[in-house]
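Researcher: Structure prediction, please.
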Amino acid sequence: YKQVPYTITKNVSFDLFTKTAYRTFILSTAAAATTAATSVPLSTKLMIPLTSAVLASVLSCVSSQPGDMLLSVANANGGVRKTHDICRDIMKSDRGFRGFFVGIKTRFIHVGIIV
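Model: Predicted structure follows.
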């Protein structure tokens, strides 16, 4: 349920965030510099991937949480209920669509510690 969206979101968003940040940094420093050749400081080389990893982790949690919720409910019931029935029950609950995101704060903390 959850590994494919998590992995795709993590890899693609990390790549996009990192490329965009480096491109923005290089363009802004090249415009301010008198020469076209600019080097990226070590602190920036560390902060860009770290920030990109944090943002990618948040997006990955959001994209995979519904699948994780379905998997948790299915396992809690011994795997006898169909996914369609679980989805319907979550949507009919008082939380509605938000029911798919129960426990996401805990996942943010978990993934934040890993990053």
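Model: The chain has four helices and no strands.
Researcher: Thanks, that helps.
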